[in-house]
Amino acid sequence: AGMKFFLQYVGCVFAFFSAGFLIISTWTDCWMVNADDSLEVSIKCRGLWWECVTNVFDGIQTCDEYDSIYAEHSVKLVLTRAMMITADILSGLGFLFLVLGLDCVKFLPDEPLIKLRICLASGVMLLLAGLPGITGSVWYAVDVYVERSSLLFHNVFLGIQYKFGWSCWLGMAGSVGCFLSGSLLTCCMYLFRETSSGRFHSAYSLRKGYSSAMTVLTNTHFPSSQTATSKMYAVDTRV
Q: How many Cβ atoms from other residues are within 10 Å of residue 131's Cβ?
């Protein structure tokens, strides 16, 4: 039981931080950052939804949102948005399911098998969340690196060259965390399935046997004639 609680809590911590990292990564503005920091007087960051410029001297930041979602965008931007939003939804649901499946949470306290299945379902959701998350963030980072390398290889200088920033790293970290928590819940928690099932059936059999014994004991010590006499005595007493 102690090991089971420990695995649940570790998986919950990983799921919490992983979902948070993915959500922060999706809605922050530093997926790409200018690579020539020493030559620039401002830090230029590009995210999935807007682009921001921060002055290195006074710290003033100005942001410009991209065009409408229905406007024409690059395939890299559109697919990364879709994959990261999918990862956010799945990781958030996985974390909520995991909270409901914790033994310390008073939700279905008399149904240990159902709570264990909830933990397994949350593990599957977290594994599914890690797949689009790692695909979107790594693909975005590789595309930025390939674009920058091709420009340097052909000696093309466009004024600003970008490298992938901390938002992209955060997306990778959140995706890896989802894989870790999902693997922990699906693989390790599955080992406790048969144990919990055996305890459940043993408790059910014990309760059933106890109920049957009480029924026999009642029928033995309180025969029908004595029960009828007691009822008549009770009626006379009330009268």
A: 17
Q: What is the pLDDT of residues 161-203, one digit of tens each?
A: 778 889 999 999 999 999 999 988 887 666 666 554 444 344 3
Residue length of the chain: 239
* Helix or strand holding residue 32 (H, E): strand 32-34
Cα–Cα dist 222/63, whole Å: 85
| Pairing outcome for strands 162-164 and 32-34 | antiparallel
The partner residues of 55 in beta bridges, in order of sequence, read 42
User: Which CATH number describes the domain made up of 1-66+76-199?
Assistant: 1.20.140.150
CA 31 – CA 135 distance, rounded (Å): 14
Does the global pTM surpass 0.90?
no
Rounded CA-CA distance 69/59 in Å is: 29
Residue indicated by tokens 């790293």: 169
User: Under a CB-based contact definition with an 8 Å cutoff, are residues 125 and 93 in contact?
Assistant: yes
Domain ranges in the chain are: 1-66+76-199
User: 117 is written with which tokens?
Assistant: 């299945």
Q: Which helix (H) or strand (E) holds 142?
A: helix 112-153
Those residues with Cβ within 8 angstroms of residue 90's Cβ, 6 or more apart along the chain or in another chain: 125, 126, 128, 129, 132
